[in-house]
Specification:
The protein is built from 6 helices and 16 strands. It is an alpha+beta fold and 260 residues long. The N and C termini lie far apart (59 Å). 6% of the residues are buried.
Length: 260
């Protein structure tokens, strides 16, 4: 009897691991929540409410003073976990915020994730969500931001963006800001930023709805990134540039630093 059990030990171990794995991913989240909630304390900037479903397919409401209640649903694919990968489908919906897409993280068993992949991430953000942060910068901004078709492949191990594409659109709106002890109040037009690859460099040119360039952001393979701004950006903000010899496509501001 014991010899037969010993001969089948690997099947027993596999069965035990499978049972444990299935038990974990199918455990009702409200059962786990009763043990997790006391550990979170009262110092969290957000409140997590109304957990429903299981660890691999569930939902909860994330509530904060900035976003209001945001219903967040997720689906975690169990099979990739066996190979040390996390494959997560996320859908978040609130009055001022929406986000959905697929993310994959590899190398989770190595201690530090090796690679993060985002697929078809779309989102919406009302500027009201940014109001508290912008007020600290003595800035007021109206309008909405829309993210569409974001795809990205980031190597954590190499600290490098391997591939990226997508588009961010700003609806336009009123801007009030304080720059060099001067108050600025202007109406910004619609702006479009398109993320793309230029060789192994990520570039994000920003243009108006008519396609007029305003500047560009970039990230190089070595982790250095930067921003350049054209004089046209000052023009559409209703401000005057002191150098009258500079044309609309002249770079008037440029800065770079290490990001990755």
């Amino acid at each position: 009897m014991l010899r037969a059990v010993w001969a089948a030990k690997w099947y027993l171990i596999l069965g035990l691991l499978t049972f444990t794995f299935v038990l974990v991913v199918t455990t009702p989240i409200h059962f786990v929540w009763r043990y997790v909630e006391p550990m979170l304390g009262n110092d969290m900037p957000v409140q997590l409410q109304q957990p429903v479903g299981t660890l691999w397919n569930g939902s909860l409401v994330i509530n904060s003073p900035y976003t209001g209640p945001v219903k967040t649903e997720w689906m975690l694919s169990p099979l990739p976990l066996v190979f040390g990968q996390v494959e997560l489908t996320l859908n978040a919906n609130g009055e001022n915020l929406r986000l959905d897409g697929l993310s994959e993280v590899s190398g989770v068993f190595s201690g530090t994730p090796e690679r993060v992949t985002l697929t078809d991430v779309n989102g919406y953000l009302d500027s009201d969500v940014l109001k508290a942060f912008l007020m600290q910068q003595r800035t007021v901004l109206d309008g909405q931001f829309e993210l569409s078709g974001l795809n990205a492949d980031v190597s954590i191990a190499q600290s490098q963006v391997l591939n990226a594409s997508g588009q961010l659109t700003y609806s336009g709106g009123e801007l009030k800001a304080r720059v060099q002890n001067q108050s600025i109040a202007t109406e910004l037009p619609m702006l479009v930023a398109t993320m793309q690859m230029d060789g192994d460099k990520v570039v994000v040119p920003v243009v108006t709805a008519d396609g007029d360039p305003l500047g560009q952001m970039y990230i190089q393979p070595d982790g250095w990134g930067g921003v350049s701004v054209l004089r046209r950006a000052v023009d559409i903000a209703g401000q005057e540039w002191p150098d009258k010899q500079a044309d609309a496509d002249t770079v008037i501001f440029e800065v770079s630093q290490k990001f990755l």
